[in-house]
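User: Predict 2-oxoadipate dioxygenase/decarboxylase's structure from this.
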Amino acid sequence: MSRQVEAWQLRAQFAAQLSRMYGAEVPAYTTLVEVAAAVNRDHAAATPDAERLGSLDRVTAERHGAIRVGSPGELADVADLFAAFGMYPVGFYDLRDAASPVPVVSTAFRPIDSEELARNPFRVFTSMLATADARFFSADLRSRVERFVEARRLFDPELLAEARRIAADGGAEAERAERFVAAAVSAFALSREPIDRTWYDELSAVSAVAADIAGVTSTHINHLTPRVLDIDELYGRMTERGITMIDAIQGPPRTAGPAVLLRQTSFRALAEPRRFREPDGAVVDGTLRVRFGEVEARGVALTREGRARYDAAMAAPDPAAVWDQHFPDSDAAMAAQGLAYYHGGDPTKPVVYEDFLPASAAGIFRSNLDTEAQATNAEDASDYSMGWMSERLGHHIHDPYELYEKAAQ
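Assistant:
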């Protein structure tokens, strides 16, 4: 009898194979991974406590992915698929109200306990098109988008059925596991099907993200994100290699005190070859610029009190200039003031922030697009919330603070 492949091993295989596929589709991503690994090695060699937020092996192997779907039904299918990999929905993110609005609401699928995160922390930020928001979608466009999404099939029903079986069993024997992971990876490959130019352009006028979600008949990996220990150093090295980075690093400023939450940046989305069907039926070659290479540096998870201080600091014109008015400069003081989570309350053992920041996500989405989302003055009568999403998913959405509290204890 062949050995049982456990959920965390499936997750590790899934992350590695997605990474290989995405590297073949977006070659600059491979450069990003190589530079991140080199920065991590150099930083670890030069910094005595470099591994305080995770071992070098874990940090270098770590990825998060991002995908986009068009409806609650598609999001529920994603939840069923990822459950087989031991990845569960955590948190609710509303990107519609960011400074650069994006018409999506999101959650992240990830492992939820410390041991599983240590084995393999792969997470997928998953956005759903907010078609019920009248500021972005007129009643007519909403009904046409929803009909289009309803008519497509992102995942083979047999793949989803197998995912549910594997989730229930907590794994699968080796040959079955191999087939399942390969099928799951291929579901996120970039489609070569021709895109209806008129429909795609109509959605692009609302938002480039809306077009990327509902202007095509499939989903795909939008970006994969390696983790780096010194994101400022990485930004410089990528620029030296001639790769155009976005204008800034999103998230908290670099300070002398403990790194908190999440800092992210990316290279600019590249023009990728896609095929289009013109109004006269002709199929022509063209390009789209929607996929990019993101990279992140993770810090300590903040408590609710710490997060309130973070939001106050980030509301200032220059957050770095006021940072020390909101945060002390040591882990010991952060722990004593109840601003961040530490294992057993020990300030030498920070609990890593495993989640995302909606303002940063929206900022990176926006910085990689040619056009802003066009929100009108219509009233938003939609009721998107964590409770709403949990009900539609048929899965409990975990509260990140409760998970950090548990990890700290």
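The mean pLDDT is 92.
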